[in-house]
């Protein structure tokens, strides 16, 4: 009888090469833990990021660890070949409690990190080999591998054949079903073919059952040390709002280090989600895939109950919501605000937002309920491109919302994408000019270089968008070698480069442009847009960085 479940969150390269002063709390782990505990399965969370916080690695250590980029060696190990070095590698990242559990779950992360993916597979194989107990592998990187399943065919085939339970999508329900089915004596083959989101092989082709629908549940991280996920804050409420919501992450990291040295009290920054999926189908986005389910929004009273429980349990009033966007219904917003007041619940939070249908009244109520930042999907300032990618964004409406946010006191961030198909200089300058003209209304913008996702509308219907696909521009070994070089040179700032496996040429009549040309132009675009960022943030980053260096040397 399986009574307990040992969950491992695998770390990426940064945990090895960078000194961390705080780490992010995994909401997915909290959701799985809460769901299984309610069904009588005791859970234990082992976050390797936390496990490594006080550990340092020499150059020799890193050279040894870099064997995780050796594809043939990792694949052979997954298939069962003895390798004492990889055994030792797996043990290096486990704590002393791992032998005590009936079953195991490995999250291989969500950062497109091949190090993280390989390490997770190696740990999974080691646990299965040593314990002969069920091991389940999941995490958003499974979705990434599956999207490029032809490119990663060798790895996924090895994982499916040797590890059996590989989960794409939400894992909480399928994990319980796997555990329950094993207890009932149901064979692994039947479990795999019937389990929601489980990958399987059919005539050598990698396939996947329909994903489980996500659930809204109050997460729990019982048993996990919360200090590494907490922020040393001040007695000034406004200062705390700046640290948690206004500043870009790079500055927040420096301020956290500065405040930690002043021995300020730690406060947990709590993640929570209460809606999933998206009714919009932006052509560049994975949410435009056909396997995305209907919009899921939890009842507002249940949402506030969860928030109150989390706030009291972890003694914090600071949240960051991870919804696709905060529900835009005026009824939901009014009820949310009213219930918080009824319960005398003071919280502060950030979330993504949609401009569509936003009003001054809604924003005012959101501010009253604690909203301090909204991140809007802007993507481009060119009206033709907005229509081309099916963004359904009116720039005049966005400007009005930005003005209202400024007046009310909500910081507005924008998501920007450069390098979309047919973004030439004129289209780019419309984005540039928008960001420049309205820079006083924009708190910060997140600059993303477009990469083609096979399961998006653009990836599925390239002819409609006037492009020809360039599939698998690299091979697996080439990508691993490039990642290994970055790791050894301590240069892992942009792991999204691993997702640029497909390129495209523009092929509309009289309008050809190669992918190589676009890549060269994107470098210049990124440089020019980066110069538009708030100069105050650069000054703050330099100040806190220098102060931390002075304190470190004193």
From TrEMBL:
Cofactor: [4Fe-4S] cluster
Key words of the record: Iron, Iron-sulfur, Metal-binding, S-adenosyl-L-methionine
SMART domains for this protein: Elp3
Transmembrane portions of the chain: none
A Pfam entry, by short name: Radical_SAM
InterPro entries assigned to the protein according to its UniProt record, in alphabetical order: BchE-like (IPR051198), Elp3/MiaA/NifB-like_rSAM (IPR006638), rSAM (IPR007197), rSAM_horseshoe (IPR023404), rSAM_sf (IPR058240)
Domain Radical SAM core residue range list: 261-489
PANTHER family assigned to the protein according to its UniProt record, in alphabetical order: ANAEROBIC MAGNESIUM-PROTOPORPHYRIN IX MONOMETHYL ESTER CYCLASE-RELATED (PTHR43409), BLL1977 PROTEIN (PTHR43409:SF7)
Protein name as catalogued: Radical SAM protein
Species, as recorded: Tissierella carlieri
Taxonomic lineage of the native organism: Bacteria, Bacillati, Bacillota, Tissierellia, Tissierellales
């Amino acid at each position: 009888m399986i009574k307990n479940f040992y969950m491992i969150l695998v770390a990426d390269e940064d945990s090895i090469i960078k000194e961390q002063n705080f780490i992010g709390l995994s909401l997915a782990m909290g959701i799985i833990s809460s769901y299984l505990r309610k069904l009588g399965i005791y859970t234990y969370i082992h976050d390797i990021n936390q496990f490594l916080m006080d550990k340092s690695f020499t150059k020799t250590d890193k050279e040894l660890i870099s064997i995780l980029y050796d594809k043939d060696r990792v694949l052979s190990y997954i298939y069962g070949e003895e390798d004492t070095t990889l055994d030792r590698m797996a043990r290096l990242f486990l704590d002393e409690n791992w032998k005590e559990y009936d079953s195991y779950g490995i999250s291989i992360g969500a950062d497109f990190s091949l190090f993280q993916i390989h390490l997770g597979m190696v740990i999974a194989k080691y646990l299965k080999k040593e314990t002969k107990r069920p091991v389940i592998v999941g995490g958003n990187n499974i979705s990434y591998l599956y999207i490029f399943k032809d490119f990663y065919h060798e790895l996924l085939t090895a994982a499916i054949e040797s590890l059996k339970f590989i989960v794409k999508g939400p894992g909480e329900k399928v994990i319980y079903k796997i555990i329950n089915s094993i207890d009932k004596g149901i064979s692994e083959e039947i479990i795999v073919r019937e389990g929601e989101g489980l990958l399987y092989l059919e005539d050598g082709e990698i396939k996947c059952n329909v994903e489980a629908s996500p659930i809204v549940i109050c997460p729990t991280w019982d048993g996990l040390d919360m200090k590494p996920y907490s922020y040393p804050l001040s007695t000034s409420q406004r200062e705390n709002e700046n640290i948690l919501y206004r500043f870009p992450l790079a500055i927040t990291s420096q301020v956290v280090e500065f405040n930690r040295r002043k021995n300020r009290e730690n406060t947990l920054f709590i993640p929570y989600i209460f809606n999933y999926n998206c009714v919009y189908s932006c052509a560049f986005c994975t949410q435009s895939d056909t396997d995305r389910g209907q919009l899921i929004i939890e009842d507002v009273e249940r949402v506030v109950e969860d928030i109150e429980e989390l706030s009291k349990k972890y003694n914090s009033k600071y949240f960051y919501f991870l919804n696709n966007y905060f529900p835009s219904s005026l009824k939901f917003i009014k009820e949310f605000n009213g219930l918080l007041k009824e319960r005398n619940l003071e919280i502060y939070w950030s979330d993504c937002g949609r401009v569509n249908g936003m009003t001054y009244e809604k924003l005012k109520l959101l501010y009253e309920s604690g909203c301090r930042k909204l991140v809007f999907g802007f993507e481009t300032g060119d009206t033709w491109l907005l229509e081309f990618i099916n963004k359904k964004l009116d720039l005049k409406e966005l400007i009005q919302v930005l003005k209202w946010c400024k007046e009310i006191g909500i910081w507005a961030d924008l998501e920007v994408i450069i390098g979309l198909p047919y973004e030439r200089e004129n289209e780019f300058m419309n984005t540039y000019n928008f960001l420049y003209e309205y820079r006083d209304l924009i708190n910060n913008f997140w600059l993303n270089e477009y990469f083609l996702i096979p399961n998006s509308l653009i990836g599925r219907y390239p002819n409609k968008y006037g492009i020809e696909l360039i599939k698998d521009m690299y091979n697996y070994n080439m990508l691993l070698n490039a990642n290994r070089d970055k790791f050894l040179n301590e240069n892992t700032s942009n792991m999204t480069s691993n997702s640029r496996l497909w390129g495209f040429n523009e092929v509309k009549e009289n309008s050809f442009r190669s992918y190589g040309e676009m890549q060269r132009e994107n470098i210049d675009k990124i440089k020019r847009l980066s110069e538009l960022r708030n100069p105050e943030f650069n000054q703050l980053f330099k100040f806190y960085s220098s102060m931390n260096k002075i304190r470190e040397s004193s």
